[in-house]
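Reviewers of the previous submission asked for a worked example of the structure-prediction workflow described in the proposal, so we include one complete record here. The input consisted solely of the amino acid sequence. No template or homolog information was supplied to the procedure at any stage.
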Amino acid sequence: MVRGLLWILAAILLGGIVHLSTVLAMPQAAKQDAYSRLAPLTPVNAMAPLAATQAGAEIMPFMDPAFATAVCRYDLSSGPLKLIAPVSQAYTSVTFYTRRSVAFYAINDRAAGRRTIELDLMTAAQHAQVPEDEEVTAADRLIIESPTTMGLIVLRALAAEPSLMPMTRQALAASTCRIQAQ
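From that input alone, the workflow returned the following structure tokens.
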């Protein structure tokens, strides 16, 4: 009786270990991650608006049709990146992802507190080389450190009503994502 319970416990433990290791390995083994799906549609270090969401034909899973979306695939190997995104009337958010789709920073228009979201994205090594200017405070210049040199910046803007979608898309079209001149 006890021996049978030990076998059952061992089987449950082994099943749990296999399940956990499979779940943790899936992001590394996935061939169609967000970066790979967006590679043919978006240039590197430039903001590209995504097409309107069609039911059943979304570029990325769980895309909301009430949001206009633009994406910047970044590569920081040639220098830091400057992102400027005007906010829409309803709501605007910017989310940063590594090459393996791990979110490492997000900001929205309410947190930015301005008419535009403006920030610098760089690696830790590039940030260490930035000279400290006593006149420029952290509130004046938002610097985000990327854990990887490649990744995605996803900009989303809400169209509160379907008739406001063209204006929301226009706000996203005015956003820029480019390497800073050194």
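The CA atoms of residues 37 and 59 lie 7 Å apart. We consider this example representative of the routine output the project will generate in years two and three.
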